[in-house]
Amino acid sequence: MGYHEIPTDGAGRIVPWCSPVPGVAYDSIITRVWAFWKGLGNCTNGVPYFYQHQIWKPQGDPRGLGGDQLAMALSSLHLLCNYTGDPGVRDYMVRMRVLS
Questions:
Q1: How many structural domains are present in the chain?
Q2: If you write DSSP's letter for every residue of 38-66 in order, what string do you get?
Q3: Is residue 93 part of a domain?
Q4: With contact defined as beta carbons under 8 Å apart, do 78 and 86 qualify?
């Protein structure tokens, strides 16, 4: 809320800044979040950053993943794949399964 004005509807309720239409707003946010994750790039070993680290910092972070985080990521990627139909999401799932 520090970067833009907070939009509200006629009743004064906060509405999404990217669209007052809930489905459009949801799609916009899901798309942006996935673009962020994909944009993290790879570690020096060639494996995607989010496969190995729970914290993102521009300079990197040494902390690895907890035991359940790959399973949660697979669950989320499965939902994302079904929502978007993006075969690239499935590719991330397959690669994650092979590495785990």
A1: 1
A2: HHT-B-TTSSBGGGT-S---TT-------
A3: yes
A4: no
Side chain identity, residue 84: T
Encode pLDDT of 58-79 as tens digits: 887 888 888 788 889 899 999 9
> Which CB contacts under 8 angstroms, 24+ apart, belong to 20-26?
none
Task: Examine residue 59 and state whether it is found in any structural domain, yes or no.
Answer: yes
* pTM of the model as a whole: 0.74
- The SS3 of residue 89 is helix
Is 33 a member of any domain?
Answer: yes
The domain containing residue 32 runs over which residues?
22-99
Q: Is residue 95 part of a domain?
A: yes
